[in-house]
Amino acid sequence: MKWNRGMTHNSAKADPAPLGLMGFGMTTVLLNLHNADLVPMGGAILAMGLVFGGATQFVAGLLEYANGNTFGMTAFMSYGAFWLSLVVLLFLPHWELAPASSPGLMGSYLLMWGLFTAIMTIGTIRASRMHQVVFSSLTVLFALLGLAEILQQPVLTLVAGYEGLFCGFSAIYLAAVELLAGQVGHATAPVDVTPLPVEVPA
């Protein structure tokens, strides 16, 4: 199955990857509409992060564990935990359970997720090009957001917002391809980039 190259699962069971990818992608798009200054922060973003980006991705990770997919389990459970922790992080000061994080601490939090994502990106070397696009663009997104916090540069947050929209829609595209491929038995849209032929001089 070239469309899912490097991210195989037990064909006797349902593939949880489209569910996890869609949860990640849709939540990422919503949050980065805010980062791009296109919409204000609101309950819809936080609820999506808590339920679909957080809890549902975590469940997808558990299902990947049952399928014996270590990479999928690590990715979905980790990013599910990211969304859950982000919502908790935003609410803790409102509940007066912890002070708000300083820009340096928030930036460090985001850069740690960038480091984790860079490691995961290396793990996509044997996967499809779209897996590589999703994880590499997410690495850039975390780096931009982390630096925006540490350097206190709103323009970096704005740039990150548009880059995050690209990342989120890439994940939605990959989720759709994997979901529909599971229905029809083959990829319905390209997820790999065919290398250009190299001319060999005579």
Summed up:
With 202 residues, the protein is mostly helical. The chain has helices at residues 17-35, 43-66, 70-91, 103-122, 129-151, 154-184. The chain has one domain (16-183).
Give a verbal description of the structure.
- By secondary structure, the protein is mainly alpha-helical.
- The chain has one domain.
- The chain is 69% helix and 0% strand.
- It has six helices and no strands.
- It has helices at 17-35, 43-66, 70-91, 103-122, 129-151, 154-184.
- Helix 1 packs antiparallel against helix 2 and helix 2 packs antiparallel against helix 3 (70-91).
- The radius of gyration is 18 Å and the shape is globular.
- The chain starts with 16 loop residues before the first helix and ends in an 18-residue tail after the last helix.
- The model is unreliable at 1-6 and 193-202 (pLDDT under 50).
- It is found in: Membrane.
- The chain crosses the membrane at residues 43-63, 75-95, 107-125, 132-151, 157-176.
The proportion of strand residues reads under 5%
Poorly predicted sequence stretches spanning 5 or more consecutive residues: 1-6, 193-202
Largest sheet: none
Spell the H/E element sequence. Answer: HHHHHH
Total number of strands: 0
* Overall pLDDT metric: 88
Structural class: mainly alpha
Number of domains: 1
Radius of gyration, taken over Cα atoms and rounded to an integer in Å: 18 Å
Q: What general form does the structure show?
A: globular
Amount of helix: 55-70%
Distance between the termini: 36 Å
What is the number of helices? 6
